[in-house]
Design brief:
14% helix; mainly beta; 164 residues; 2 domains
Length: 164
């Protein structure tokens, strides 16, 4: 992003939207970009199962099944974010975590980078952190093979028009 030719269109508590110039095919073009601090998720494994969260999401307008995850706070390392979210959302801590991958889920218009960690050696947290006030989460364990099948085959969901 060319910071010299960037203007802020919207600034909110979770993300901002900027208009920036980008060179494509030798021409300067304007693009609107959602600027986000990034996120971290944690694949918590135990006894052949993965710990999942079910929560309603504004973007989809429906309940989603996800791994524990959250936004990287300012001056926070993605690893710290993953451990914090594991504690806040599930009440667990991990003996060991390791980075699996990081990626940009929607790089065409969004700066968010996601970091995904694997957690093993789970135990109840010695000091439980409070969940965000606006979170309502159901926890459940899913067989790892079932979770893999859902990732690779997709979830069967009712046909739904766009939320917006």
């Amino acid at each position: 992003m060319n910071k010299d030719n960037t203007s802020i269109l919207y600034k909110g508590p979770i993300f901002s939207i900027v208009r920036t110039e980008l060179e494509l095919n030798g021409k300067m073009v304007d693009r609107d970009v959602l600027v986000h601090s990034g996120g971290a998720g944690i694949l918590a494994l135990q006894d052949g199962k993965v710990l999942m969260v079910r929560q309603k999401r504004a973007g989809s307008g429906r309940e989603m099944i996800e791994i524990p995850a959250g936004m990287i706070d300012s001056n926070e390392d993605p690893r710290q974010t993953a451990l914090r979210e594991l504690n806040e959302e599930t009440g667990y801590e991990a003996e060991k975590i390791e980075l699996i991958t990081s990626f940009y889920p929607t790089p065409g218009y969004d700066s968010e980078r996601l970091f995904i960690y694997r957690a093993t050696g789970l135990a109840p947290a010695k000091k439980r952190l409070e969940m965000d006030a606006d979170e309502e989460i159901d926890l459940f364990w899913m067989d790892l093979d079932e979770a893999k099948a859902k990732v690779f085959n997709g979830l069967k969901t009712p046909k739904q028009s766009s939320r917006f």
